[in-house]
Design goal:
single chain, Rossmann fold, Dihydrodipicolinate Reductase, domain 2, 2 domains, seven-stranded mixed sheet, five-stranded mixed sheet, 7 helices, 12 strands, about 25% helix, globular
């Protein structure tokens, strides 16, 4: 496949991709460890930024990076996305619930043909390539629904539950605003398919659940699909984050370093990723 035509994210002369990671929690910590252990071929850790990083540290890290990974919070994503993309550098956004704050998610990255891109990893669910293809073919009749089943603690449900209880039903936008720490998979699905306001979400608290479960249902004239996922929970996330999420980010980094794309959702910029899904 041809190399990725992106001077900001494609190292030259055999150089490694320099990665700055924002946040060192469950996701960021795993990505940092993978980079430090050499488990991301073609990429190296350049800097780790935290909430107490100084302005000069942030500026130096962003300037030196070929790509930035945001793995911190919605507030951090809101601040870093326009800043990083304005420099022409791409940013991988884990806290993609940030886009629920904006009527059009594409307005958050810096404008212009030379701006960097926002790359949203699939995270806790898969099949976005098939669903994005179906979304391209849809004529207004498509329907997509995402059911998330998590422990009550992960959803901040304090009631003693005897069994599963649906605690939310609405759009992906509404889910992200109500559960900003646990709705990133819904947002990624929405960005890849029908958008934040047409993607239906159901959130279920289950006191007996040991792994996070996701069910994605799609129906349209082009086909019917049902995808099910059962993910181990990262022990450092308070039950909120699937362990697979960090490895989804690692997959994006590996693909960028290799010059091909794994099917991430892309917002902004004018440099396509091979196989990527542009946001509607």
């Amino acid at each position: 496949m041809p190399p990725l035509p992106s001077p900001s994210t494609r190292p030259t002369s055999g150089a490694e991709l320099t990665v700055a990671v924002v946040g060192a929690g469950a996701i960021g910590g795993a990505v940092i460890e993978a980079l430090e252990q050499g488990r991301v071929p073609g990429a190296r850790l350049g800097a780790v930024l935290r909430s107490n990083s100084t302005e000069s540290e942030i500026e130096a890290a962003v300037d030196a990076a070929d790509v930035v990974v945001e793995a911190s919070s919605v507030a951090a994503a809101e601040a870093y996305i326009p800043r990083v993309t304005a420099t022409g550098t791409d940013i991988i956004v884990c806290s993609c619930g940030v886009f629920a704050r904006h009527d059009d998610p594409r307005t958050l990255p810096a404008p212009g043909p030379h701006a960097g891109r926002v790359l949203v990893p699939a995270g806790a669910i898969g099949g976005l390539d098939v669903l994005a293809a179906a979304a391209r073919a849809e004529t207004g009749e498509a329907r997509v629904r995402h059911v998330t089943i998590k422990s009550p603690a992960a959803l901040n449900v304090g009631d003693e539950l005897a069994g599963p209880r649906e605690v939310f039903r609405g759009s992906a936008r509404e889910a992200a605003l109500e559960f900003p720490l646990t709705s990133n998979a819904s947002v990624a699905l929405a960005l890849a398919t029908l958008g934040l306001d047409r993607t239906e979400v159901s959130v279920v608290a289950d006191p007996d659940v040991e792994r996070t479960r996701h069910v994605v249902e799609w129906e349209s004239p082009v086909g019917r699909y049902e995808l099910r996922f059962e993910n181990a929970v990262d022990p450092d996330s308070g039950g909120r984050t699937s362990a697979i999420t960090a490895w989804s980010v690692v997959g994006v980094l590996h693909a960028l370093a290799a010059g091909v794309g794994p099917g991430v959702v892309v917002l902004g910029g004018d440099r396509p990723v091979e196989g990527a899904t542009p946001s509607p």
